[in-house]
Amino acid sequence: MYKLMLVDSDSERSDSLEAALQEAGYRQILRAVPGESLLAAVRRHQPEIVLIDMQSPDRDTLESLRNISQAMPRPIVFFAGQSDAETTRAAIQAGVSAYIVDDLPGKRLKSVLEVAIARFQDYRKLKDELEDYKTRLQDRKDVDRARGILMQHRHLSEEEAYQLLRKMAMDRNMKVGEAARNFIAAMALLGGPTG
Amino acid sequence: MKRELRIGFLPLTDCAVLVAAQERGFFEKHGLVVTLQREVSWANIRDRVAFGELDAAHMLAPMPLAAALGIDGLGVPMQTALGIGLNGSAITLATRLMQGIREHFPACLHSSPLRATGLKALLEHRLEHRLVMACVYPFSQHYYLLRAWLEDGGLVIGRDVEIQVIPPSRMVSALAAGAIDGYCAGEPWNQAAVQRGIGCVAVSSYGLWHNGPEKVLGTTHSWAAAHPDTHLALLKALLEAAHWADEAGNRPLLAGLLARPEYLNVPQALICPPLLGCYRHAADEPERRVPDFNVFARYAANFPWHSHGHYFLAQMQASGQLADPPAAADTLLAGTFRTDVYRQAAAALGLPYPTGNHIPLSGCTMPWVLHEASQAIAMGSNHIALHPLRASAGQTGPSGCMSSG
């Protein structure tokens, strides 16, 4: 069975990927943190497959093992030569990249990559959802604040204040939350009440 | 015509032409809506361009050729029709090493450009042991310059010194942590080490090779073939931006744009002096005048010379990256360094362009004029200081300024 190394500064994502790979039958899974100790870790453990987060600048370091260092006994190569273009494209879109030893069968890598791609995609989806939720929460807060200022200053009802904000947003081709934030910022600039 | 483009860059001073095109409206002028996408590694740039997530990108000058040769690990052929910067990098050593040379072998400092002989002397007298130096990517002028500089000083790569690859943004922390003894990288990463006092510049890339190749705009062959009009519009926008960025009067403004969080995200004061030709080698030294430290347009800087391609082929072989010389080098270079496309863009703007594909890579230590051009072009010195570099550059045929291929 092949020795795998995961290089990812996001430990939650690593946990989830490691669990999925174990489920797929991979037992030897090492974790390495991106950064200065990575090269030493690769040299010490000599993994046959390295999966790395594309947000890590260490990719260039990993690639150099093949091109520069004679000290690396097991050359690792970029996977595309042994993988199909669709898998490669999906990996790049998901933000994960892989390096393998020269003699590893392409089929084996493909299965590992498919697991990694799925995990990275799930994770991104979760993150996007969280981001979306946070934005919506913030929007609601800002709209409430802006509406409060309008009600107080223009002596408007709750509904009238909201309609005014909505109109302002539509006129400027913005979301209501964004318009509310602009309005609050402008009030602060004028030294008025900011809710 | 494709109008919406994504272009990748690494946060380095020499992404300047792309930033100038975006912020000074040159993309817009040529009908393009561009998103500049910051990347963290050259490998990401290669992969995202190869698989179409980026339309084009800031690349190290040898990268498209390595891709066209299929030795970059991916093998999706790429090309360039535009240089976007000459010079602009340097070799930095840990302050400890420079102090050792100052203390024990001061005579070694009486040469400029500084040779690596002082470093060699430190090793010979057992004041230092095996050194670790870093560069930013295997297919880079940094790697070739660093190798030539070390070899010229008598150091044997592998025995006396190991060369590692470390991302530019991490060089300074690696040097501070003692993980490496020095590196070759672009700005602002040398000046950052000098400012902190942890590193001293031994030699700038300009010192080793006056007006040598550095960065290009790269695309895949398939992208360039599918979008010829877009490619031309992109080249025109970038050529105009390059001329804007080359004006000394625009450089302080350029430094301010580059300093922004979405680009380099470092203080403007770190970026600006080298752009104005003021280059500091050590925290306790006065600045040195290097007016051509960054060249973005003058001296035909944007032309994709086939001579540079021949030089890179020689370096790839000398460093073991390429086993055999390619069978049809001229055909390969014509497809990779698109002088034809460049000429189209320059002619459309009324800018002078070289009519030949080759240029002597050394031999002129003074400004000269290129007459093999649509209009005569003022050129800078092309002096190459080191023998190992001249040897690789010399394989290109014409060797003096009197003849040009």
What's the gist of this structure?
The complex is a heterodimer of chains A (195) and B (405). Chain A has 195 residues and is of the alpha/beta class. Chain A has 7 helices and 5 strands, in the order E-H-E-H-E-H-E-H-E-H-H-H.
List the helices and strands and how they pair.
The complex is a heterodimer of chains A (195) and B (405).
Chain A: E1 4-7, H1 11-23, E2 29-32, H2 38-45, E3 49-53, H3 59-67, E4 76-78, H4 85-94, E5 96-101, H5 106-154, H6 158-171, H7 176-189
Helix pairs in contact in A: 1-5, 4-5, 5-6, 5-7, 6-7
Chain B: E1 4-9, H1 16-23, H2 26-29, E2 33-38, H3 42-50, E3 56-60, H4 63-69, E4 78-87, E5 89-94, H5 95-104, H6 117-124, E6 131-135, H7 141-152, E7 161-165, H8 168-176, E8 182-186, H9 189-196, E9 199-204, H10 205-208, E10 213-220, H11 221-226, H12 228-246, H13 251-259, H14 268-275, E11 278-279, E12 288-289, E13 294-295, H15 306-318, H16 329-336, H17 339-349, E14 368-370, E15 377-379, H18 387-394
Helix pairs in contact in B: 1-12, 5-6, 8-9, 12-17, 13-14
Poorly predicted runs of chain B are 395-405
- Mind describing the biggest β-sheet of chain A? 5 strands, mixed
> Structural class of the helix and strand makeup of chain B?
alpha/beta
User: In order across it, which strands form the biggest sheet of chain A?
Assistant: 2-1-3-5-4
Q: Can you tell me the residue ranges of chain A where pLDDT is under 50 for at least 5 consecutive residues?
A: 69-73
Your description of this structure?
The complex is a heterodimer of chains A (195) and B (405). With 195 residues, chain A is α/β, with parallel strands linked by helices. In chain A, 60% of the residues lie in helices and 11% in strands. Chain A contains 7 helices and 5 strands. A 5-stranded mixed β-sheet of chain A has the order 2-1-3-5-4, with helices on both faces. In chain A, helix 1 links the parallel strand 1 and strand 2. In chain A, helix 5 crosses helix 6 and helix 6 packs across helix 7. Chain A starts with a strand and ends in a 6-residue tail after the last helix. In chain A, 31% of the residues are buried. By secondary structure, chain B is α/β, with parallel strands linked by helices. A 6-stranded mixed β-sheet of chain B has the order 2-1-3-10-4-13, with helices on both faces. Chain B has a 5-stranded mixed β-sheet with strand order 7-6-8-5-9, sandwiched between helices. Chain B has a two-stranded antiparallel ribbon with strand order 11-12. In chain B, helix 5 packs across helix 6 and helix 8 runs parallel beside helix 9. In chain B, 57% of the residues are buried. The chains are: A alpha/beta (195), B alpha/beta (405). The interface between A and B is medium-sized, with 29 and 31 residues.
